[in-house]
UniProtKB/TrEMBL annotation:
Signal peptide: none annotated. It comes from the Bacteria. The active site is at K363 (for fru-6p isomerization activity). One of its GO terms (molecular function) is glutamine-fructose-6-phosphate transaminase (isomerizing) activity. Catalyzes the first step in hexosamine metabolism, converting fructose-6P into glucosamine-6P using glutamine as a nitrogen source. This is Glutamine--fructose-6-phosphate aminotransferase [isomerizing]. It is found in: Cytoplasm.
Length: 368
């Protein structure tokens, strides 16, 4: 059932082109420049009346929420707040009827997310659940649900659930943008054309695996890792660090590049590998992230740069480069996550860890 792979996680990483194609299937109306969700039940009036979006999630799903904020704010011009569900539910949150509250959850059963979601509903918000598991509690509790269609995810460390959440959020951002009139038909068509290319791009980026394995071998005994990214690459940095922690048990931190000088720079020495996610795009403040690479190098740190295929600048500065196909700023998180999943997988595998069942973790966290 592992389809020739040693671990489910590895299989699920390689399933992503197919999983994302399933997320997109039947939902892109290219000629109309619109998105179709068969469960959709929000009227134009309702969508126009929303004043705010609050995203509730935990762990990896929270990271997709942070990326989703960039998508929804940029295409639908609605302010988005991304909240850790476990924090939201234990304070006195501000929720109004004009708020759209989105829960993101692979399992649809995470106790903290479900608790926060029910609280938001009780306070009168309109609720939307983005889940992978059909019939799960969150899909039942919500006013509207959208499935990610990744197929069953068995590895405890989330991979295809994450990238399909990103793609679902992108589709949602296009849909909201069209309904709110912030996105033109032509604009939507452009976004949809790019989305349609994602399965092929993921196939291409998976070819970086031999290079990622070399990096994994060199750093498999490191004690700490730092991951840096800016803008939409910030959640990718957080996710890269979480994946590595979970299955390799190496301490790792994800940081927004601009924050490095406010603390984590003190950690850098010759032993410290720093993964810098630096696709070339103005939204990602490429020149600034190049500055981060220089700062790390000046202190003897080892830089592993995830860069566009045609990049010639970061190339000369980094110790190792992992090249990925160039994607738009909003899509780059989907593409750039793949090498980080592979890095975590290979480091953990080389260390002899139980990749699919990491210690102390459960696939579905139903305790609060
Ligand atoms: C990380 C991971 C966890 C989950 C989190 C939320 O690889 O799997 O961080 O993302 O427990 O789970 P769901 O998405 O099921 O609510």
């Amino acid at each position: 059932e592992k389809g020739g792979y040693k671990h489910f996680m590895h299989k699920e990483i390689h399933e992503q082109p197919r999983a994302i194609a399933d997320t997109l299937r039947g939902r892109m109306l290219l000629s109309e420049g619109d998105v179709h969700f068969d469960t959709w039940n929000l009227s134009l009036e309702q969508v126009k009346s929303f004043t705010k979006v609050t995203i509730l999630a935990c762990g990896t799903s929270w990271h997709s929420g942070v990326a989703g904020k960039h998508m929804i704010e940029s295409l639908a011009r609605l302010p988005v707040e991304v909240e850790l569900a476990s924090e939201f539910r234990y304070r006195d949150p501000i929720v109004e009827k004009s708020h759209l509250v989105i829960a993101i959850s692979q399992s649809g059963e995470t106790a903290d997310t479900l608790g926060a979601f029910k609280e938001a509903k009780r306070l009168g918000a309109h609720t939307l659940a983005i889940c992978n598991v059909i019939g799960s509690a969150m899909t039942r509790e919500s006013d509207l649900h959208i499935l990610t269609n990744a197929g069953p995810e068995i590895g405890v460390a989330s991979t295809k659930a994450f990238t399909t959440q990103l793609v679902t959020l992108y589709l949602l951002a296009v849909k909201l943008g069209r309904m709110r009139g912030t996105l033109s038909v032509e604009g939507a068509q452009e976004h949809l054309t790019q989305l349609a290319q994602v399965p092929k791009m993921i196939e291409d980026v998976l070819k970086c695996e031999p290079q990622v394995k070399r990096v994994a071998r060199e750093f498999m005994n490191a004690q700490d890792f730092l991951f840096l990214g800016r803008g939409p690459m910030h959640p990718v940095a957080l996710e890269g660090a979480l994946k590595l922690k979970e299955i390799s048990y190496i301490h790792a931190e994800g940081y927004a590049g601009g924050e490095m000088k406010h603390g984590p720079i003190a950690l850098i020495d010759e032993k410290m590998p720093v993964v810098v996610i630096a696709p070339k795009h103005p939204h990602v403040a490429y020149e600034k992230i190049i500055g981060n690479i220089e700062e790390v190098r000046a202190r003897g740190g080892k830089v592993i740069a995830v860069i566009d295929e045609d990049d010639t600048q970061a190339d000369t500065l980094a110790d190792h480069v992992i090249r990925i196909p160039a994607a738009s700023a909003l899509l780059a998180p989907v593409v750039a996550t793949i090498p980080l999943q592979l890095l975590a997988y290979h480091v953990a595998e080389m260390r002899g860890n139980d990749v699919d069942q990491p210690r102390n973790l459960a696939k579905s966290v139903t305790v609060e």
